[in-house]
Design brief:
The chain is globular and about 75 Å long. By secondary structure, the chain is an alpha+beta fold. The chain contains 14 helices and 37 strands. The strands form 7 sheets. Strands 7, 8, 9, 10, 13, 14, 16, 17, 21 and 22 form a 10-stranded antiparallel sheet that branches.
Length: about 700
């Protein structure tokens, strides 16, 4: 083996190339190399041009030399793989998983301990991870960090949010890589839980565009028992280095061999559209661990939620303070008169859902504890089984069932994950006993156990413990304030959606999300899985509820419709109040019609930060839906319908911004036109500033 390796060795820039690997289509080329000091490096090229220059690899281990330098190659192995698999819920019916693989096993010269690095080269990018075999002298160990680098070729245009270990709820900034400033970015965060790791730290997925038009997305896949990867920016060398949330004593990850790290991913293309159609992150996750998936369903839902954010009603039942679980007779507590989650109000939403074909109704604020839940770092705020006096669980179970609607449970943990884990079985049994099949979890605040952070190893493992426990009870999970998904919907398809970014709610009570925000999220947050963005806000100006309010949604009404197509999620909320949908029944029809699970997805045109135009075919039926959105600039789009079957005519209903519409002045102005289209059709539409177009095709 060593003879074969030596025969392949070529010296380049002082490094010894021991392996070159090409993607199945031959356009991407990966090189692995070693320095004379025993340091591993890699490069990545697209069409013979560097995307990633010579970048170091390695793992730092506590009280051990680790795998940084003084390494020797023990063995190498090449293989290839090609399969087609079907996601339970997804953007397309079938996904091809095709790659060429190179595995190199390295040994520390002094300790004789071994580590393998596995590289998988797809047509759309490179994934690699560190693997540790089971050895007598290497069973339990503590990782203190990685030496993983991504050395770029220039000062790329970058779409970024600050490297905050405790929140990802920021609007995206756009700048040159050399102009990244996390302190500048953090000014947009309205909840005081942030912990910025450095002025030049950013979160992943990190989306970039080079001066010569190459799109680069750096992310990770299959993060299960490991902290989330952030990146430190070296502005002088245009290099990125990994950073991770430590625990209370400064350690990064506790490992037990055999084990592996998450995959580090680099998705690359000369077309922005190809970044969005990449399925590499999903492909790097394991197949489903749930054998019977028949109970996992995509759905649209409504709920007692937006009225809480616009201050029409409240989460809390009363105005008392210093709540302690089990010490209050709630039947004797005076209500504040503003509680939203009442039996009567919930029935109103159930009726609306049944009338309009929605499967679920979410109810927030149903359970005791909301009077004293936020910011106090308390352990036992919620028990997840005790309703307020005005919320009749059994009656609502009966009523919802009579209407063919399912209630969606809400579990706000107030970031006390230890309390939630102790109560999980009881909470999930309560759900099943009362007809709930889906739960929305929340983690607002500083994490308990103290010293842990949202993006640390303990919390990442917690999110998976919840998903696995929920699967045992056949419960679907929609997590909020969690770390961002990394393709785990393939392995745990009951984890159907997540927030994990700055959602639509911020438009109700803060400076809001800028018009370009929704054009960036598909290139960043949604690369790892569906996002519960909660679109569909028709009443975009908040002075409708509070006189003098300056807050508003930074889109037109039609852009809110288009988000159901451009912002992928198999769980989609019609987030506005039912009363507002009844004011605009013809526009609401699109939300009623649009699918949530897809046979096919075509990205017709895209540019991060500017615009998106996406067409999707509904699962199992010959219906298509198109969503197009723009940033703060008005824009004309030409839509080619060549994705439609040839020789067939379709009826297309166009929902468009009205003449004179704009997000800030006339956001609710729209028009609807019906046209006949075929695969030969090309139709131009105008989008207002932060506007959109939505089309249903039948």
């Amino acid at each position: 083996m060593l003879k074969k390796i030596l025969m392949l060795m070529i010296v380049v820039n002082g490094l010894i190339i021991s392996q070159a690997l090409k993607s199945p289509d031959g356009r991407l080329e990966f090189d692995f190399m070693m320095s004379k000091g025993g340091i591993p490096y890699y490069t990545l090229k697209l069409d013979k041009e560097y995307v990633i220059k010579e970048s170091a690899l390695g793992i730092m281990i506590k009280d051990d030399p680790g795998f940084i330098d003084e390494l020797a190659i023990v063995s190498t192995q090449n293989s290839n793989f090609d399969e087609t698999w079907q996601p339970v819920l997804g953007e397309q019916k079938e996904i091809r998983n095709n790659y060429n693989q190179f595995t190199v096993t390295l040994q520390n010269i002094d300790t004789k301990k071994e580590m393998s690095i596995v590289f998988r080269l797809f047509n759309d990018g490179l994934g690699f991870r560190y693997e540790f075999p089971k050895m007598e002298n290497q069973r339990y160990f503590t990782i203190m960090g990685e030496k993983t680098e991504f050395r770029l070729t220039g000062d790329h245009k970058t779409f970024w949010i600050p490297g905050d270990f405790d929140s990802n709820e920021y609007p995206y900034m756009t700048s040159k890589l050399s102009e990244v400033d996390a302190e500048k970015g953090q000014g947009f965060f309205e909840i005081s839980t942030r912990r910025i790791i450095a002025h030049n730290a950013v979160q992943t997925p990190l989306m970039m565009k080079s001066d010569n038009g190459v799109y680069i997305n750096i992310f990770e896949a299959a993060v299960t028992n490991y902290p989330v990867m952030h990146l430190l920016v070296d502005k002088s060398e245009f290099s990125l280095k990994t950073a991770f949330a430590p625990d209370a004593v400064g350690n990064i990850a506790y490992m037990q061999a055999p084990c592996s790290t998450p995959w580090r991913t680099i998705i690359v293309s000369k077309k922005a559209e190809n970044i969005l159609t990449s399925r590499m992150v999903l492909n790097l996750n394991e197949p489903s661990k749930i054998s019977d998936v028949s109970w996992i369903k995509g759905q649209k839902y409504v709920g007692i939620w937006w009225e809480l954010h616009v201050n029409k009603s409240s989460w809390n039942y009363s105005d008392i303070n210093n709540i302690k679980l089990g010490e209050i007779d709630w039947s004797k507590v005076k209500p504040n008169g503003r509680h939203g989650a009442t039996t009567e109000r919930t029935k109103y939403y159930i009726d609306f859902a049944a009338k309009n074909g929605f499967a679920g109704v979410l109810v927030e604020g149903w359970n005791v504890g909301w009077e004293d839940w936020f910011g106090n770092w308390k352990e036992n705020v919620f028990d997840f089984v005790t309703p307020y006096p005005d919320f009749d669980v059994k009656e609502l179970q009966r009523y919802a069932a009579s209407k063919g609607v399912k209630l969606i449970m809400h579990h706000e943990t107030s970031a006390s994950a230890t309390n939630y884990e102790r109560r999980l079985d009881e909470a999930f049994r309560f759900m099943k006993d009362n007809g709930y099949d889906a739960v929305k979890t929340g983690y607002v605040g500083r994490i308990i156990p103290r010293g842990e952070m949202h993006d640390g190893q303990w919390m990442v493992s917690h999110y998976f413990r919840v998903a696995e426990k929920a699967a045992q009870y056949k419960i679907m999970v929609n997590s909020h304030e969690s770390s961002r998904p990394t393709g785990q919907s393939r392995t745990w398809p009951n984890w159907i959606s997540a927030e994990a970014a700055r959602g639509n709610e911020f438009n109700g009570w803060s400076r809001g999300n800028p018009p370009e925000h929704e054009t960036i999220l598909p290139f960043t947050r949604i690369m790892g899985g569906g996002m519960d963005y909660t679109p569909g806000i028709f009443q975009t100006k908040m002075d409708y509820y509070t006189t003098g309010s300056k807050f508003q949604v930074h889109t037109t009404l039609v852009k809110q419709l288009a988000l159901y197509v451009t912002m992928y999620s198999p769980l989609q909320m019609a987030a506005d109040l039912p009363e507002n949908y009844e004011r605009f029944p013809d526009a609401f029809q699109f939300i009623k019609d649009v699918a949530v699970d897809w046979d096919d997805t075509e990205v017709l045109s895209a540019e991060p930060g500017d615009y998106l135009l996406i067409a999707r075919k509904a699962k199992g039926i010959n219906e298509w839906f198109i969503g197009g959105i723009t940033d703060e600039n008005e824009r004309e789009m030409e839509i080619a319908f060549d994705f439609l079957p040839k020789g067939t005519s379709f009826t297309a209903k166009f929902y468009m911004d009205g003449d004179g519409a704009s997000w800030d002045e006339n956001p609710m102005l729209y028009k609807i036109e019906t046209k006949t289209v075929t695969s030969e059709s090309k139709i131009k539409v105008k989008l207002a500033r932060s506007g959109g177009v939505a089309i249903s095709i039948k």
